[in-house]
UniProtKB/TrEMBL annotation:
<protein>
    <submittedName>
        <fullName>F-box/kelch-repeat protein at1g57790</fullName>
    </submittedName>
</protein>
<dbReference type="InterPro" id="IPR036047">
    <property type="entry name" value="F-box-like_dom_sf"/>
</dbReference>
<dbReference type="InterPro" id="IPR001810">
    <property type="entry name" value="F-box_dom"/>
</dbReference>
<feature type="domain" description="KIB1-4 beta-propeller">
    <location>
        <begin position="64"/>
        <end position="311"/>
    </location>
</feature>
<dbReference type="Pfam" id="PF00646">
    <property type="entry name" value="F-box"/>
</dbReference>
<dbReference type="InterPro" id="IPR005174">
    <property type="entry name" value="KIB1-4_b-propeller"/>
</dbReference>
<dbReference type="Pfam" id="PF03478">
    <property type="entry name" value="Beta-prop_KIB1-4"/>
</dbReference>
<feature type="domain" description="F-box">
    <location>
        <begin position="4"/>
        <end position="38"/>
    </location>
</feature>
Length: 371
């Protein structure tokens, strides 16, 4: 074969699914790069800090590997999107890190204490990038939202009084149709309009309905996940109930209220029995759904959980947890290791190196003399 770019797409896809970040062959030469860019599919990796070796461990398929990132010392993952990680240190400093090329974008100011969720929308090199923090103090009925846009050096903070207690869950917030959606610990949904700064909260979103089993309403929710599925218009949620046997998928339904037309749409969770050819990757730092590459991967939910050294998924087909290496299968998750600070990472496509200006959150100040 004269040129690697002439490889069949199926073979390129297979090769690309086995390599990650700096190991990808697209950096070797132009023809190999051309072959890589013909198909950008990349399998997500589950990434977390492995204290025993003081390195970061990646799980992909049924294999794992370690990478050392000195830049991430004393830092933990808050959010993972677009191939970038939003990291925070114990002193509340924030920065972005790209594990594919070791590039860093530092934020100019620290975030306040006790923010349950800190996340971002749009890549940090984009002028539209915005970092958002949300907290719900337990001593009062309020939601506090702070925002930092690219190019700015000060957080904008707004406190919204609420009629009832809204305790924020660890589900990753989602930007949907220009609004930020997030969940509380009992499955209620809040919607924040980033343009007019309006916050709307829908209560009793998981109210017992005829279609939903009664046991869902007799158990507390232990794990919360909110996400979008590629190719779908609606938002979805996955709730793991307290006994860990009930893993349920819901679609968020937004319907006009019957009486007051001008009031915000009522949001309710509708039970989804089957996700068809989709596969879900869930964690507190990143959750998303996409079309499965193979039929055997469809109708599965990959959690940030391990059995031994193997990633665990939940099959909606048989209602059981399974390990990828095949040595575990059970209808509950007792005894599995849950990785609360792990994230699903999908390497961004290889592009030309970012200019230094793109890796600066703020542009250098220019005085009146142009210096």
């Amino acid at each position: 074969m004269g040129n690697w770019a002439d490889l069949p797409p199926e073979l390129i896809n297979l090769i690309l699914s086995k390599v990650f970040a700096k190991d990808r062959f697209s950096l070797v030469c132009r023809s190999w790069n051309a072959a890589a860019t013909t198909n950008c599919y990349s399998v997500p990796c589950l990434m977390y800090y492995y204290r025993r070796t003081r390195t970061w461990k990646f799980h992909r398929h049924n294999s794992s590997f370690f990478i050392s990132f000195p830049q991430l010392k004393d830092a933990e993952i808050h959010c993972s999107k677009y191939g970038w990680l939003l990291m925070a240190r114990y002193d509340n400093t924030l920065f972005f890190f790209n594990p594919s090329n070791n590039q860093t974008v530092k934020l100019p100011c620290r975030i306040g204490f006790a923010y349950t969720k800190v996340f971002f929308f749009h890549p940090p090199t984009s002028p539209d990038c915005t970092v958002v923090g949300i907290k719900t103090p337990i001593w009062k009925q309020a939601v506090v939202i702070c925002m930092l846009k690219r190019g700015e050096s000060q957080w904008e903070s707004i406190e919204y009084p609420t009629k009832t207690q809204f305790l924020l869950s660890h589900a990753p917030p989602v930007l949907h149709r220009g609004q930020i959606y997030f969940l509380d610990v009992i499955g209620n949904v809040a919607r924040f309009n980033v343009i007019n700064r309006r916050l709307v909260i829908s209560e009793k979103c998981l109210r017992q309905q005829q279609r939903q089993p009664r046991e869902l309403h007799d158990n507390k929710i232990k794990e919360h996940y909110l996400f979008k599925v590629k190719g779908e218009e609606a938002l979805f949620g996955v709730f793991v109930f307290h006994d860990e046997r009930n893993v349920k998928v819901f679609m968020l339904s937004e319907k006009p209220r019957e009486v007051k037309v001008l009031m915000p749409k009522k949001m309710k969770w509708e039970l989804v029995e089957d996700i068809g050819d989709k596969v879900l990757y869930l964690s507190h730092a990143s959750s998303f759904g996409c079309t499965a590459r193979t039929k055997i991967m469809a109708n599965r939910i990959y959690f940030p959980k391990l059995h031994g050294d193997s990633v665990v998924f939940y099959s909606l087909s048989d209602g059981k947890y399974h390990s990828l290496n095949g040595d575990y299968s059970d209808n509950n998750a007792y005894g599995l290791k849950r990785l609360d600070f792990a994230a699903w990472v999908t390497p961004a496509p290889i592009t030309t190196s970012k200019l230094a200006a793109e890796l600066r959150w703020r542009r250098p100040q220019v005085d009146q003399h142009g210096n």
